Amino acid sequence: AVLVVGAHMLLPVMAESMTFLTFAIPTTVMLGMSGLLLLLGLLLGLFGSAIAMGRYLKA
Known about the structure:
single chain
């Protein structure tokens, strides 16, 4: 959600300042990127929790 809101707020500003570039991001790419970031965050959280639980149970 933050990615989509950020893109909708930043892309018009960037398009105005850099007229020689196009900033059209398809919805499918945005949804895929959001899903990928969500999955990576989930995996990173699970990995960190597993390390923390392992340290806690050893102590």
